[in-house]
Batch of 4 targets.
Target 1
Amino acid sequence: MAQKFGNGRWVQEGFLDNRVEGTIVGRIVFAVIGPVDVYLRGDFKPDIAGQVIQFRNPRFEDEDLAGQIIGDMENPQIGTVNLISFDPHPNLVPHPYIEWFSARKNHYRIELEPAEAWIVMASDLG
């Protein structure tokens, strides 16, 4: 199953941390199911590698339909990174792109507008 989370509207906010090489940990808040912890093997692409990113979606909709589509999503999400970057493809306008495969081989993809994700400064990390 490939799930793009409908125009991103079912993704509220989250963070992902790649400060430990080969590992990405974080939390993403989804419509209906709420916070989902994320533990992925792999790294961000070089444009943001080794950083912590945070994102917030102003188009978020907590609609019941989300429960029918993503209600059985594993929590925590354990899997492998496919591509996480703020500049995923040379022929596209740069934008935040988050894609992974879960241990159950489910395929997830989140695409956001450029202003909706940012690198967290080291001084802001607790």
Target 2
Amino acid sequence: MLNSSFFIKVTNKLLFNNKSKKDLLQDLKLENFDRSTFSFYRYVNIDDPSSLRDILYKEWVSLKILGRIYIAKEGINAQLSCPSKNLMLFQKKLHLHKGFENIPLKYAVQDGNSFFKLVIKVKDEIVAYKIDKDEYNMKKVGNHLNPKEFNKAIDDSDSIILDMRNYYESEVGRFEGAIIPNVETSRELLPEIKKILKGKKKNKILMYCTGGIRCEKASSFLIQNGFNDVNQLNGGIINYAHAVKKKKIESKFVGKNFVFDSRLGERITDDIISKCHQCGELSDNHIDCNNDACHLLFIQCHECGVKYDKCCSNDCMDFNKLPIEKQKILRKDPERVVSKTRDSLSGKPRFFLKA
């Protein structure tokens, strides 16, 4: 008879990654096949997110899928990297799940090594706006505009264009004339949007985000708050970028599309609209500070990357040169300030990656 604790241990090994980052990156390096990066979402009622999470994990591990997925009672939000040879089978399996029939995939503008492991988490929301359920109704969302329609609407003098992303995303790329809310997290966004739009309920509202998911609930929130002409870019910046390339339409988006994976961005136009946070020269290269005790996400030009060894400051560069064992001891000291970069960079970063 099997010991129950042994069974749980074996089961968990199947449902969670148990390899180190070093080993996972090595596995990725040894792959001899191409991968496709894409995302999808759907607001749909999910009765048992935890059970669905385990089912999808088993399915996707067998297909060598990597990525980050959030599942909640309100739906699913997924960013994935799938072996191209397994793509058809993945779609077939996905569409068999109730509520996921014919769910559209949004393919990356630029492929690359986007993820190195598979993480599926059960959340309270698939976008963490933290608003009460009576403040939105997902059966009433904004009008979905295709890229040509969105371009035309931008030219309307009555239109208000809203970037529904965090500040650090908009910093490297945005639509011309868009209002950029000064927020760092999704939780801050909707209260800030209400302030921005005070007294403007009669205007045409144009919203956009990376792939559409943030606009979906935000548009419902605005409609619930009395806005009548609420519109969103269908498929987000990703779909827009593909349309610009394939249909040769004018791009009113300039710069890069920030993405939440190892690529950190996709080039949409050649425009560089942001500056290095260290020297102030033009740059839109986001980088994760090379110091494992910091992991600050910031913009760094090539020259500063060489000068600071891909760190955000001299403090972090010096800390990074210490013996590993000493670094580990110092990291445990709650009183130690590794770097004062957060207060000293000329272009203050807005986001800090977890170590």
Target 3
Amino acid sequence: MTVLLSFGEVLVDLLPTDATGKHHQPIAGGAPANVAVGYAKLGGKSYFAGGISADHYGVMLKQALADQGVATDYLAEVPGAATATVLVNLDEQGERTFEFNRNGTADMRYSKQHFDHIPWQGIDIFHLCSNTFTETAIFNTSLYGARCANAFATLVSFDVNLRLSLWQDLSLLAERVEQCFRYTQVLKMSREEADYLALVRDKSFEDYLQFCLAQGVEVILVTDGANPVQCITAQQRFSVPVPKISAVDTTAAGDSFISGFLFALGLDLQYDLGYLTLKQRLESKEHLEAAVVFATRCGAITCGQKGAFPSLPTLAQVSSFLL
């Protein structure tokens, strides 16, 4: 069984409970935390690394991760820091807008020293997002984690996952995101995110994809809502249609997709007669396509329910999903 370490923010999503939007229910969330939970619910072994508060929300979040089968050995409690919260608003199509409360919160206080205590030789995949790039200290910590992963030949997965409202200085965004590319093997971004980054660099979408590959990225996954997912490598390119669904809440759909992809990429690795490693599987269209198909089903199932952790599917749900 492959082992995932997902790093970043675990926070409280405040979801509306009525049409007025005046009442909200606190639910555990945060993109990297969702990925850790998604991987665990599918049957994989996952750890979550990040800063967590000692307040009542922090206690709730740690328990929520553990309840979903995520190992919390590498959580770091940050005394005196609050838990980050995000107010989630949904439109009629289930699309979200976010209002973040994340000033000096615990998720921003993880340090390089915390990564030094992780036994990297036992980690197969390291996953991170760009929400820990918004401030210099946590950005440096994030890149340090990616470098640690590289040093131990751990596959690095990076979901761009842009939240522009989190950035006090947007002029730093593209540069910091692109610095992470040099440590990344699997890069996920939405078409909207790719277009944004391409525009900043005055490049076309296609030229920006080639730029990403030139930085050393091995596989690029581009999601585009109800449109097919594109998978791009230096040697090949293909698209996979997504299941047609009626979306209820798209909050964790991208996280469900990437956790599903990473899980499927390593599925039954020990029984692979070709003895392909995870990184060798990135060069195999057969393995890549199967993983993307699996991932689109995960994302579709998640869109059919409200909330993050509860909407992430089990392997049985994905296996029985009807297209």
Target 4
Amino acid sequence: MRKITLRSTAGFTLIEVILALGLTALLLGLLSTGVFIVAGDWNRNSDVLDQSLDEALAILQIDRALHGAFPHSFTNEETLSRQVFFSGDEDYLSWVSTVSPQRSAGLTAWELYSVAGEGTYLTMVPAFSDSPRLRLDETEAALLFPGYEVEFSYLYEELDENKVWIEEWEAQELLSLPLAVYARFVPVDDEMELLEIVARVRNNRHRSIQPNDLEIRDL
């Protein structure tokens, strides 16, 4: 007589299926959370990198513009005398440069200044044969460095290793430009990086206007 052998088929119970589905959902959740965190870190790092690149490009442009500072002269309508356009103090500077970000022909007037609690602003206008002062005043400034305050110093004298820096320079009175400009962009937030420029002004004297040596010696 043949024996009938019953083979039991191994299968998953309902509890095992539920546990497997729960474990799968947990793993997918952890994976998606990890991807979200990595993506968030990547976006934050990308934003920081973009900001750093923007700051570096802006600093480079200002550095070039200061190196290209030009003793732009104009006629004072009240005195009819020839004057040189360059006005600077501790937190403000306006000058004319041969450098333009748009690479347009002609000279460009630049203006940099700080507003407490906001940052450093930049204004640029064309510099024609007159004073660009009125055009700078009528043009809306752009916030160049949010959270930064700018500080300027002007190289008055350089004898060997001895350098004399001063905090103001008025070319309308001195009839010349400083030997160099030192600009510090100081962040309000300590976690932000200090930005600095030291620009040598090669073309600091007008070809036909003699510097006011008496005013310069009184500095």
